[in-house]
């Protein structure tokens, strides 16, 4: 992958007391790639995401995004700069329709932009139009007017991704988008992420190796808070250090 650098961390660290959940992580994410973080349980993947989105303040290191140092910027400002993380099902408005959920997510983004650039929201873009574009993209057309709570689990997870898209991000962060999904829904989500990779830069945390290997451009393997190996799927698949990190967990 040879796109411009969209996100970069240097020496990223998050310590809880003496324990470093993230321990000196250097990540470079290039525009237009699907960049996946894998690693055994407790490797520090989710904590790394928290540091990127601003939910946690790193105890050391820097985060640069879209040409700016965002290490100390609040989460809303990062959304406004174009970083969007998938929400959890628990944050969908269960009684509101799919379309209303997406409209609200699109609206929330303008508030975030105002904050990021220190200026008030001046125009009123058509948030319903954004919602409808996403509904098409997710192929939820037949269900746009159903309450989100009436969707199947798999469809709700797809809608979560849609909520993140409503922010019209440069970088989309997806933390285990297939977790808890039935075997029938997994290919739908996999195809969706693969397609999103054409238009967005995607950072993914995923445990399902067949998904990881089939859609990632770059894989970063984390182990005990550090980067163990990084490279394209073929390189990672055949790396002995990766194999033993996973086996060591058993
Ligand atoms: P999984 O695949 O199981 O989700 P992960 O790679 O996402 O794992 P993290 O959730 O980032 O791992 O956790 C990394 C380590 O940090 C774990 O050992 C975890 O117990 C620890 N940890 C996470 N949050 C806290 C906290 N608030 N206080 C102390 N330790 C924490």
TrEMBL record:
Residues 7-249 form the ABC transporter domain. The keyword Cell membrane does not apply. The keyword Ligase does not apply. One of its GO terms (molecular function) is ATP binding. It holds the Pfam family ABC_tran. Keywords: ATP-binding, Nucleotide-binding, Transport. This is ABC transporter ATP-binding protein.
